[in-house]
Amino acid sequence: MASLAAPVSVQRPASRRISIPRPVLITGLVALAAAVLLTALPGAYEAIRDGVAQIPHADARWIALALGLEALSFLGHIVLFRAVFVDGNARVGYAASYEITMAGHAATRVFGAAGAGGVALQVWALRRAGLSNRTVAARMVAFLVLLYSFYAVTVAVVGVGLYTGVLPGGGSALLTVVPGVAALLLIGGALASSRLAIRLHLKGKPAQVAATISDGVDGAIEIVKARDPRLLGGLAWWIFDIAVLWAAFHAFGAEPPIFVITLGYFLGLVGNALPFFGSLGGVDGGMIGALVALGTVAPITIAAVVVYRLISCWIPTLPGLAAYFQLRRRMTDWQPSAELA
Predict the structure, then answer these.
(1) Could you give the CA distance from residue 86 to residue 236 in angstroms, rounded to a whole number?
(2) Which of 205, 220, 246, 249: disulfide with 145, CB 3.0–4.6 Å?
């Protein structure tokens, strides 16, 4: 009896899906957006070309001043870090505080995403120093609340001041009042949500998260009530970093109103939320766009922002990487089981 032939499959092969890595996709979209802007905006290419051509002619004296101002900015960050995370702990001394801060900066620049890389590295280091997960999380919330409260209040005050004419510089409501109101709503919403989450009597993991956020907010309020002078470190972080941008403009002979520089600086920092290498293009483009919209000259603004980003973002990454390896060596002497909470 003849054997039956095996049935022939008529099923069509599954179609292959092309998977594009997210960083590649984002970078491609940014490049496309840049190409569209260069072709759509009159004079954009010439402005970029003229701005880049001015960079080699920057006044070295102002550049030296900018480098010193950036060092003071990081010193302020370290001071605020110690106010929040270090309670007389000998293990996390000034050297370790410097290493954690600088290594966190390097991680932030490499990974972007609104500083998530730096936060992750600091959490890891503090856990190795002996702090419990709950303590680290609560104090990180307190640190971010304190640091970005300066941001929100400054955007609101400067924005309204420019719009009303109380501060010199001017600007449309879209660039002045709207960001100010949004910043205050963001901070207010964050503070209110921590209280609301507790009152909802959540259970399980959501309850733990709500309690941690509430503890962090309370910790920030306690530091403010105690009038800890180290709070000025947070103010110094912002003031001296903005002063770097101010010095960069002067390096090319420009003197925009300081409040215009301040608002353009803060609006540009929104680009830090872009999740790719060092927020490259996000902060730079946002800062240039905001400053030009507020009345600064495009070519000089491009040159000043590029120099500012080089000093504020990329040059500190080198000591930040060195600090990371120093921190790794220091951790060999730390017992991870000890709790300093």
Answers:
(1) 19
(2) 220
Cβ distance 278 to 313 under 8 Å? yes
- Distances 114 to 81, 125, 161, 194, 241 between C-alpha atoms, Å: 18, 19, 27, 21, 17
**Amino acid in the structure at residue 214:** S
Q: What is the pLDDT of residue 185?
A: 84
Flag whether 317 is in a domain. yes
Q: Distances in Å between the alpha carbon of 92 and those of 73, 96, 102, 279?
A: 20, 5, 14, 30
Check residue 277 and give its pLDDT: 47
| Rounded average pLDDT per 10-residue block, the chain, 341 residues | 48 49 55 52 68 88 97 95 77 87 84 66 85 86 89 90 87 84 80 68 70 83 89 94 97 94 90 55 80 90 93 90 91 60 41
Return phi, psi of residue 42, to 5°: -65, 130
CA 36 to chain centroid: 27
What burial class does residue 317 get, using C-beta atoms within 10 Å of its C-beta: 0-12 exposed, 13-18 middle, 19+ buried? middle
Q: Which of 130, 71, 120 is nearest to 96 (CA)?
A: 130
- Distances from the Cα of 202 to the Cα of 104, 191, 196, 197, 221, angstroms: 33, 17, 10, 7, 23
Which residues constitute the domain of residue 58? 44-331
| Closest to 259 in 3D by CA, of 164, 147, 161 | 161
Sign of the CA dihedral with 312 first, then 317, 322, and 324 last: positive
pLDDT reported for residue 1: 47
CA-nearest of 41, 260, 245 to 172 is 260
Indicate the number of domains in the chain: 1
Q: Answer whether residue 13 is part of any domain.
A: no
For 131, phi and psi rounded to 5 degrees? Answer: -75, 145
DSSP three-state, residue 274: coil
DSSP letter for 12, please. P
Instruction: Supply the pTM of this predicted model.
Output: 0.80
**CA distance linking residue 92 with residue 82, whole number of Å:** 9
Residue 315 CA to residue 89 CA, distance in Å, equals 30
The reply to whether 340 falls in a domain is: no
Q: How many CA atoms, within 13 angstroms, populate the side-chain half-sphere of residue 12? A: 3
